[in-house]
């Protein structure tokens, strides 16, 4: 039966996160440790300790491994509330890529792998990286073009290749490496995922890229894999099934992005509304100019639609479905609608919007990335069109 | 608890309407009695008889007055399914303005008024008009500018003025007239609604307008009120509360528009998808051109979002709330998104899209009106902005 | 040297057309002979006589054949002024498809063909059709898919096939048929164009289509070619070069569409501005609502840009260049920008916009077709992208 | 007579600037002296020396004062070519705000003022600031709200107030201060402009703002005026006519913005085209995906339109007209169209687009500011609507 009211428990969690973010996290937004390559690990550790003290760390992880075992709908309300500050998700240990990596390990890893990797991650004691994307001509939006290779080496594997735009690489303690795998006979047996502690010999962060966005701890880096050695038990799940696991990770990871950005867009909107109610121009409050009021009305509609799309997809995932189509739609709808929100907020703020005196400037830059990260809109539209064709 | 699954009963009703529309209604789409001023009353009567036979007539009316007493969510699924043919809502007696008028009577009328007006309406034996809009300088989007006047006359009232864009006037048997009301002392005591049987002396359909849309029986007309006399019991509800009742009618009426148009847009999309899968151009199926596939993907997202917005608002109304904000948002979101859908479908069909050889051309024209009827987007944005200001 | 001022002669011609259209043509806009399939031939003849009397008939035709030999820039100013009424181009004999057909004959036909076909066309005594487009699976946007065939027959040809969306077929006296041509050996030797007087045995207008637009005399028809016989001298230019001549016709024809629609959009804009200055809503003139004022400002920018794009392309053509890229850009820019103008005007007019009480409703419907006729936007974007690739 | 061909001299200047920018300026784009607050003065000086050596410094200044006396159309071609590198305008001393300040001095200043201020500016030996914008509740988009005050003090003036978003303040040697002026009697006699050498007692750069854009030397700063003393001959033009002079400066300054950004957008487009021709995805070059090809086609149309709008407005200004309406239209058209270009380029580049590995990321950030600086789009639309109303 159609119902748009979260459970009492979900509402209580939402309220807890909201007040936590407002009271404890937002004050850190003026902290100088927010660098062009993201908050420093030092700042991150301080924030994580706050969430741990509040009992709000890693809610998405299984209860057995230190989390709350929150389902997708519960994540929807908590992550949105967390995203209200760009520092919220880092604080609660639910930022990309760690959140998705934990989800993947929770679903696919052996008990031993969980003990070794998931436990410290869930406790916020380590950060992790997901090494999939490659520089041209390797795997960008098209994972099939992967060039990194893993070849058998004793009872383990040796991995070589180049990765690129690897979020959080600088300072990470755990890596998940995606590589095209070959058997003893040199036959390509499909892509596999390999776990590795970091730092590791044979894996080098060659460069942290300067990027428009600046909210991920460690930034985005170029990584050289030059004979990285991993043991046989480093394989996550089965050899050759890397793309299948990537799917396990990607659909929900795509959706949690939507949840977090939804909160960020709401923040930008609240700032713009506050400004429009106060600032006067040409003899009247900004908000009384229809040119401004209409932008704010459009924001409310875009936020409303995005929230509905997120909730719907979360519900689909909670029913145990793959949700490929729904998460593609949610990704495109949210990334484009929320970006429009940020863009309008910036415009409403005028010159002020271009400055870092409000969080809007930062939210705008981050949301620009959201239209590209985890699959550009074009790739999702292409995928949706293919589904229409087959139907 | 968040749930996106309609009840079993709702799903069964949806399925019944879907097969009814496909099997019984769509064959009438090539009927020449679909004129530039809408389907003739003759065609309407034939269609209504079909719905009556199927037990699908007037589902929105209270059970006591001949309907199913369907709540807003139940209407959401049934009306969308009905709208899949532009003839569906007329067939099931849930087209504007009758559907909203019945809803209004159901909520506000006395038993005697219901017996006299609601009963034949619900039975599909009569059509009705809602006489509110006036030509310039009267009440257009701004009801406050109303010029039509009702003045005391014996134990009744005499009404004079001009109405315009009155949907279904030609052939209607029942009228609801909105007029600025004056007391014996000549004091303006607010707007009131008056019931009148039709035809009536003092009320003349002076002209049926040629309009872009052509799906409302009776078309849209100009009506002259020149001393229309009504009894004291003709007042709907209380004297002077006309705008309040207009609100009772408008928010749900706005939403049922969204429901019906949603079905129409889905129809256009299905036609465009079918065409794109078959038609070849430049050596490949149309759907394999990204330029076309992306448009169809956007359609699916716009339809998805519109459906979520409708369901959400229906749920709000079912909770007993006024839903002013939610219905304004749903109206703007749906009218603009579904219009984009129709526009893209027409473009995908190319030259064929401009012809009446498919229903897309008609759906496009009707949806253009949807962005204006029941409040242009601009009025809703303005109203949303005012709410943001006050918050 | 960059100059944006038309010559004195061009300005004088523009002024003449403007006053002619306002004084003589616009009064006919309420003529009931404007049917759903275009103005009747009777109305057309009456209008053409007016232009002849005014010395404004067929200005684009060579002076030797009854016109003024107007260059592209001169056409730009005259055709825009003519398009200010949807009846203007018909009146001045510069409407599609006749205008383009005359241009083609002027460029390619033999003296004898000109005497036989161009002369009566230029004098406004006959209308013509261009039979290229075919129903699926034939030549739609992709002329390469043409299925109509011409085969040798004595010293002439016999042509069979089906054409579709043939503008002005009903009542036309001259036809230009495009057909895939075969030699005696049955070898495909390319497409050719054939002239034929009409009516003709073997060519049948099987149906006039109902379409959204309604401004072309004769409407758009389906035509059956079943053994149409033409003489050897019926070939326009050389056998097998039909596509080359189609290009000669298409680039300028595309641009004259832009010129005429520009005038129509200007008309819609003037109507909307007039309405917005007069109509009050919520206590103030519509134009004082930024929501309306901004739409009108956007109209002015879209009209400004369209005019610049037309002028630029006309200048390129006047330099003797093919202008394929420029005319594709002008077609997409103008069709989309001018459509937006019409759409905004309709929205500004509100309910009035949906009625035929102003010309805006009609202009909107016609402009919707403009985004498809003479190559949908998608085909032009595709062609522009191919040029970018090659560069 | 309409002509779209620049003069031979203009074409030669364009070619000279193009090769200068490519050969001499672009190599500096990887210089680490490009900071978050713009290129350092050190880097600027090095670049300016290059332009001086090439004879391409300050072409817009009168010949008598060290420039070429380039008219608006000549500026159009030179500035666009210069903008092809974000460092080009700084190199050629035609960046904001210096370019507009020199233009203002050239038009309004006394010979003595020109000798003292224009000469070193034109020689590239000094940078200048235009102190107009104020923090809330002062003069933002609405100059009428100005709060800074100048009061008589001996034979000069004392100025106090706060300025904000003052471009290039850090390191500037010359200031133009806009202030509301009072006479001896304390009467407000209108706004005036005052020249001042910098640094100066009573004028303090209190903070350089962190902003999204980063291409202006000195960045954007907050400036405190606390009893700044200027002599009587410091007044630019006449007392009380400050807004009139602001207009002298603003329309052309607005247009030169368009010229420079046009070059920048062209650069972004060229980068995106190059990438799309090389990068493969899903088995084919990016450019062969219509989803990408259409974006690039749209870029070409947006660039084409922007160039035509710039040329048209430059021509209007060269005719000696004020060009208020034309420059407003050009500002809105260019800022929005060129921003769309940058946005599409970034999207085509995917993850790479978010990095500083190409200039696109920077161009995107700068162009976002362009939609706000020198009047946000909304203020120009508002002004255009007012003109429509009056017409």
TrEMBL record, chains A, B, C, D:
GO terms for cellular component: cytoplasm. It comes from the Bacteria. GO terms for molecular function: acyl-CoA dehydrogenase activity; flavin adenine dinucleotide binding. Residues 240-388 form the Acyl-CoA dehydrogenase/oxidase C-terminal domain. Keywords: FAD, Flavoprotein, Oxidoreductase. One of its GO terms (biological process) is fatty acid beta-oxidation using acyl-CoA dehydrogenase. Residues 7-125 form the Acyl-CoA dehydrogenase/oxidase N-terminal domain. Its cofactor is FAD. Residues 130-224 form the Acyl-CoA oxidase/dehydrogenase middle domain. Pfam families: Acyl-CoA_dh_1, Acyl-CoA_dh_M, Acyl-CoA_dh_N. Gene3D superfamilies: Acyl-CoA dehydrogenase/oxidase, N-terminal domain, Butyryl-CoA Dehydrogenase, subunit A, domain 2, Butyryl-CoA Dehydrogenase, subunit A, domain 3. Belongs to the acyl-CoA dehydrogenase family. This is Acyl-CoA dehydrogenase. It comes from Minwuia thermotolerans.
